[in-house]
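Hello,

Our lab assistant flagged a job as stuck in the queue for most of the afternoon. It eventually completed. Since we weren't sure the result was trustworthy after the delay, we are filing this so someone can double-check. Below is the sequence as submitted and the structure that was eventually returned. Let us know if re-running is recommended.
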Amino acid sequence: MPQGDKSSYTDKQKRKAAHIEESYEARGVPEEEAEARAWATVNKQSGGGEKSGSGRRKSETAKRADRKDSARRAAASRRGQSPNRGSASARKQSGSTSLSAMTRADLLERAAEQGIRGRSRMRKDELIAALS
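-- returned structure --
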């Protein structure tokens, strides 16, 4: 596909570019510049032409998971916590925390307190078994 070919764009993307181009021209931007800006805007918003796979790096499922993770991290940030764990004082106080809910780093810390040998080479599930 030669550079500048718009055949891989969807009809919706083409309509959006035309609308943006008209808006720029109404503001006095020269026609060529308006067209270039319009397509740059469409490319930035949608990742380029979506037919034949160009500009698609993530599946919808991956995008959904990323959005969910981002929302979870934002909520934790609003509460003043690290997104991956609760506050350190809350973790220390709650002795009944499930081992499987703890991070590997927390498990390593607990294993060090109990003097478990070989803990640094253990995977999370091995640390849980050793601490149980």
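-- support follow-up --
The delay was a queue issue, not a problem with the job. The result is valid. The mean pLDDT is 80. The first helix runs from residue 11 to 26.
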